[in-house]
Write a structure and sequence with these properties.
The complex is a heterodimer of chains A (215) and B (79). Chain A is mainly alpha-helical and 215 residues long. In chain A, 61% of the residues lie in helices and 0% in strands. Chain B starts with a helix and ends with a helix. Classes of the chains: A mainly alpha (215), B mainly alpha (79).
């Protein structure tokens, strides 16, 4: 049995990244092919419009070309890529808001300190997520639900639950506190649960929750 | 533990980041509260549904344009 110290998790992209860093364009193109759909989907979920999402994807990979020699492997390549893409997406959103004639006010009760949304529609789902996920119309429906969330909840959910960044990485990337990330993620999950359960919960097994119940 | 407290601690439980003592209290509540059990299950399934989704396809014309832009930029960076 080996006595070498526990190695850090190996970044599966490292061989291609290292080749690209040495000027191998083929290797870089392979990285693009590996991640472009994922980055496009991430961008689309943040910015909402496909043309804008395309711009984010292109800017992201242009940035990678520009900075690949600076990539120091302190994080995985995937995390670095997600960071770049998220920054471009948020910059685009800021630019879009700046151009809006009327500022986009947040709804009055939409603050991190407001009470948590209480589950109203509670029911077992009629089908398993793995089966639901195969259906194109389900994909579109769940992404519509995501698009309805306020940006600050949507972005945290996308980074934490879909891109699987850690709480700390998410906080750093967005320039908010760890506590903010946690609260926003909770609110996002509860709001999405509510919407999706209304769609995919079995109405015949709906539970009417008594709010005075406690133990 | 009341249902309201459970809601606040939901993330830690679902993410498996709860300390043992609180986890026990949480599970004790769940054992006697079907609505809360279902809410926890709903949240797990909600997250799973997004994770299992397929990424969207990029329009082929865009891919071609982007490849060209990347090639041009590459030549600048790696002359």
């Amino acid at each position: 049995m080996s006595r070498i110290a526990e190695p850090r998790p190996i970044d599966p992209d490292l061989p291609l990244v290292q080749a690209a860093r040495n000027g191998n364009f083929d290797a870089f193109e392979k990285l693009v092919a590996r991640y472009e759909r994922q980055i496009y989907t991430l961008a689309l979920r943040i910015v909402g419009r496909s043309q804008d999402a395309e711009e984010v994807v292109q800017e992201t990979f242009l940035s990678v070309v520009q900075h690949i020699r600076d990539f120091q492997e302190r994080s995985s390549f995937h995390t670095w890529l997600v960071r770049i893409a998220t920054n471009h997406a948020l910059k685009l959103l800021r630019k879009r808001k700046g151009q809006a004639a009327v500022s986009l006010d947040q709804p009055a009760n939409d603050s991190d300190d407001a009470p948590l949304p209480h589950p109203e529609f509670i029911a077992e789902w009629a089908d398993e997520p793995s089966r639901l996920a195969l259906r194109r119309e389900v994909q579109e429906t769940v992404d519509r639900a995501l698009a309805h969330l306020d940006e600050k909840y949507r972005v945290v959910f996308v980074l934490r639950d879909i891109q699987e960044l850690s709480t700390e990485e998410t906080a750093r990337l967005l320039g908010i506190s760890v506590a903010n990330v946690k609260v926003r993620l909770l609110r996002a999950r509860l709001m999405l649960r509510e919407q999706l359960t209304r769609l995919y919960g079995d109405p015949q097994r709906r539970i009417v929750h008594r709010h005075d119940h406690d133990q | 533990m009341k249902c309201e407290d459970l809601l606040k601690a939901m993330n830690e439980y679902v993410d498996g980041q709860m300390d043992l003592a609180v986890c026990k209290e949480f599970e004790q509540h769940l054992a006697g509260c079907n609505p809360c059990q279902v809410v926890v299950d709903n949240i797990r399934k909600t997250i799973r549904l997004y994770k299992d989704g397929q990424p969207y396809e990029l329009p082929p014309e865009f891919c071609q344009r982007m490849r060209q832009a990347l090639r041009d930029k590459w030549k600048q960076q790696f002359p």
